[in-house]
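Appendix B, Record 12. Input sequence as logged:
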Amino acid sequence: MKILIESWRKFLAESKEDMSDKIKEVKFNSTLALSVFRDEGTLTEVEAGALEYEMSLAENPDEEVVRGFQESLYSGGRTGFLSPYSFDELRMMDLYKLRGRNAGFAIKDGDDIVSVHNNSNLSGLANEFMRKAKEVGGARLDHFDGFLSGLYRKHGFTDVYEVYQWDEQYAPEEWSFEKVDIMNPSTSVYAEALSSLTHEDPNALPNESVEVEAEDDLKLDINPNLKYNNYKYGRPDVIMRKLA
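Logged structural output:
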């Protein structure tokens, strides 16, 4: 069993500016990844065989590739806000961009998968990017709980090692507030724990702090009733995952 120190304590130990930047980063990466994983297209054998990556590695940056990668992030206009990564920050990452396409991903700090995006007309890149990212050392990622939870779990990121619980003061600008089904294991790390408390009747959820075992036996102190309503009104938690 793993015991999690409450995330809000970590928040309090850091500056509001730092936490605000972190949440913006998670929103940026989650928004980009959603556009990739919601693409239900599939690569043809010809397309898959023709994929080539332009690379810039942190230990020896290729500034032309860095510039192209940065332009690729901006090209789609899907995120509604600017990238949280400056040119200099991107230089310090391992960048993988499909040659001739505005699509790719980055590895930050050696193993953190970020900026998975597809702003090209090529469909079905999600599986390819996850395969390649793991092949080159990607072993962890973060995202807002919801649609991505089930997808990342299927790709082997089943070790949930930390959760940042929703805090209204760090709500990202232009947040969509789309409902997240907290009782669905495909969209929530809390589904099994809350179902065991309510037998799937949300009206029976305790309205007080209790310890629950979220996904991967992660122990958390939460208010189940408040958590249910947060998710219902589009306020999910940030989930930190690693490969098992």
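The chain has nine helices and ten strands.
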